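README, section 4: Worked example with a bound small molecule

Sections 1 through 3 covered apo chains. Here we extend the same pipeline to holo records, where the ligand is supplied as SMILES alongside the sequence. The molecule in this example is magnesium ion. Nothing else about the input changes; the structure line simply encodes the ligand pose together with the chain.
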Amino acid sequence: MGRLLSPDEKASSIFEIDYDALYAAGKRVLLFDLDNTLGKGRPDRLAPAARELLLRLRKDGFRIGVITNRRRPAELPVFRDLSEHALLYHRACKPLKRGFLSLLEKLDASVDQAVMIGDRRLTDVFGANRVGIYTILLREGA
Ligand SMILES: [Mg+2]
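The generated complex, written as structure tokens:
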């Protein structure tokens, strides 16, 4: 149980992650949490800096997924913004495995190729670790 709550890495934000090292280690799919990860709090829109980052990561050869427990309708502006860059899975009920597995299948990735990045140990880290995905924990609630 303790091991499943432990991330492989910690970072202060999505902008402080060494994505080149992840790519060199064979990672090709990045799964991001939404709230307090791709934006502060519960973002209504995708901020320009986050959009720039996703564009760069796609250019660098990553495929992107966003997995969120949000229950609000997928037509919210932030989901529209994200859908240009990422496959979305909302109402994921993390730490259940199904959202992670669904995104891996849709993004045509093996567990070994994937990274989960999120701010919550009990949902993002625990859920992804249960599937065997490499995990990066951001500062909780940051
Ligand atoms: Mg979050």
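What to look for in the output: The first strand starts at residue 9 and ends at 11. DSSP finds five helices and six strands in the chain.

Section 5 describes how to batch many such records.
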